[in-house]
Amino acid sequence: MSNTRLKRTPLYEQHVAAGGRMVPFAGFEMPVQYTSIRSEHQAVRERVGIFDVSHMGEIELLGDHAVAVADTIFTNGIARLANGQACYTCMCRPDGGIIDDLVVYKITNNHVLICANAANHQKDLAHIKSIAANRCEVRDTSDEWVQIAVQGPCAASVIDGLIADFSTTAIKRFRFTHAQVCGTKGIVSRTGYTGEDGFELYMPTSSGTVLWDALLKTGADVGIQPAGLGARDSLRLEVAFPLYGNDIDETTTPYEAGLGWVVQLNKPEPFVGQQVLELEKQRTPQRRLVGIEVTGRGIARADYQVFSSDGRTAIGRVTSGTHSPSLGKAIALAYVQAPYTTPGTDLAISIRDQLVPAVVVPCPFLKKPASS
Amino acid sequence: MEKHFPEDLKYTKDHEWCRVEGNIATIGITWHAQDQLGDIVYCELPEVGEDVSGNRHFGVVESVKTLSDLISPVSGKVVERNEAVIEAPEGLNEDMYGDGWLIKVEMSTPDEVNGLLDHSVYAKFTEEQSE
Question: Which of chain B's residues have a Cβ under 8 Å away from the Cβ of A331?
Fold first, then answer.
């Protein structure tokens, strides 16, 4: 296989040494799994797993107007965040289509850090630069960061073992702080993409391998495991976090995707796409992203067609689907027409030309006890 | 389980194996197939009495991340299918040449077996594929 055009993260050698099966993903060679998806998935749900997410893009806004500019770019409110607080948000086109979903960190009143999907990184950068114009500095700092996600009920105790001057109890959900981890200064953020308590560490690239190895060593007692893209996908789907490119894209809007909660229509300045989204909020969307459980035999996969339960009417399309390792059943996200979105509605999914019974269920599929 | 390709089986480039005993061929997936798929979570097989054709689709196995068509090495009638792997598909990862067999076929064209690969040719083929 020719991989000459694929990039590698600073942790590439670590993945290969740990038996990671490397696959092309968003222009990078990334580990899809090390041992098995099921085992890595379970480690994150029950103990702790670490993910190399250095392929994600980092874009920073700097200057007196950085926060105001961010508020015109993102659907969620940035100015209302405290320094040291982050939020999940969409970034939309003028017609309301989602350019990307991102996490935005308000570092100070004149410094914003944006974490973008790897596949959208260059597109996002161009869009952000065009909206920012000359009102603030836009810097692509992706190559300066190694990003590691530490996720699972034991994540806090593992991080606490590597920091000297504070405790993770000081960081609430969607808060972050600058701190020394393994002797190197970086950002410790209580965020993630698994539905578990957990942290994302943004550290200087050069510190990546030392930090990765230290995490594995410190977490050995609690059964830490490196986890790949496969487990990342099954974990996020169980808690119904959308995946850009599957469940959301430029043809879908935040309201259709059930992301109305990240759209703030009352900010001091309007954001790109606001006019269209204001109108859409007042109507019922024609289709909505819903959770589906396959009650018959089979697994619904992306692009399978969804029908009414009598099989007569095509009503939508599956965007993500798998066998849930935690629940032991087939779950999926699908866009379906408005009359069919209520939990309890019987549907059918076309699996290899056979109609298989399914039902709309509330999201998330996996209900976890609330964590700190 | 370590990579292995038993000497007494015949193989296809679609990563199925075939054990021939008289007129009956037992069919399964190889170590390489289950290794590429990862944790297998679903298995769909033809009913007893259905016909399968050599080099044609006869079922599906799915893992958490993907799915793979099953391609029959031989033609004939399904005389038995492994209900245990339908109930517990992880058996395909654990014992793919033993308890993880899929179907038994009464062959209509036993000569087809001559076109299958022996273990050393197949092992070499999987190595070339992995490069």
Answer: none
